[in-house]
Amino acid sequence: MYLEKRASQSQFVALRGQRYHVLTWGQAKAGQTPLVMVHGWMDVAASFQFVIDAFVAERQVIAPDWRGYGLTDWGRSDNYWFPDYLADLDFLIDQFAPDQPIDLAGHSMGGNVVTLYAGIRPERIRRLINLEGFGVPATEPSQAPKRYAQWMDQLKAHHRGKLALRSYDSLDGVARRLMKTNARLSEDKANWLARHWSRQNAEGQWEILGDAAHKIVNAQLTRLDETLEIYRRISAPYLMVEAEHNLMDTWYRGRYALSEFHERLKNVPQASRVTVADAGHMLHHDQPERLAALIEDFLA
Length: 300
Known about the structure:
With 300 residues, the chain is an alpha/beta fold. The protein has helices at residues 49-54, 82-96, 109-120, 144-159, 171-181, 187-197, 224-232, 248-252, 258-265, 283-286, 288-299; strands spanning 9-15, 18-25, 35-38, 61-64, 102-107, 125-131, 167-168, 198-200, 206-208, 238-243, 271-276. Strand 3, helix 1 (49-54) and strand 4 (61-64) form a beta-alpha-beta unit. Helix 2 crosses helix 3, helix 3 (109-120) crosses helix 7 (224-232) and helix 5 packs across helix 6 (187-197).
């Protein structure tokens, strides 16, 4: 089992009428900017433990479980809307750092959230770090009828119990699932993550701490022109961290490429890019020491 070097504190706060679970490491210090880190799709805040353990300097880190993940309340509706993540983050920052800018980092879906947030609330961000958050393919108005129909069909499937996530007989089964998804994940880290990524139900099965409703497509199309306008309003220095073994081709099968994202990134005024060698999408698990060094250098 992986042994933590820096212990986290678990707490629950009220955000927008929901009971939000938040992990914190370290204490607030005069003159030091707090670092807020937000996880990706089907992940949890504890996922950042390995990177935080690898930091050289002590600092305050704040990481929530997004709505519908981990120990945060699962949605009171039957699907999730992307703008809610932006509003949740805004309320969270007001709660933990009401009077100062923050450093902000996000992985994958969380990377997409923090990038948009930094253009919407530029005055709240000192430094911005995006870990493998590449946005989504551009859409056209002609896709709208099919998208709405897909959304409604998936809602029906969810209500009929057809989108349920798989459960496991043991924690070891959860760990093996994590290692199957990420072949670079070591067994000790997988065993540690499994305890934060799942919980045992009344039948003795281990369930993933993620609402199956997250699998439902967003009903509304993403407008690229709006996204780029938000990118242009980012005022903080911005670090884009990519993994050497990128999965863009696997995810989108030619509909959206890394080169297209790099073109979008040109709209961010102070953007820089770096690639982490020998890492896949879960680079915070694969190379936590290298990633921690990149983050600390950038924040300094």
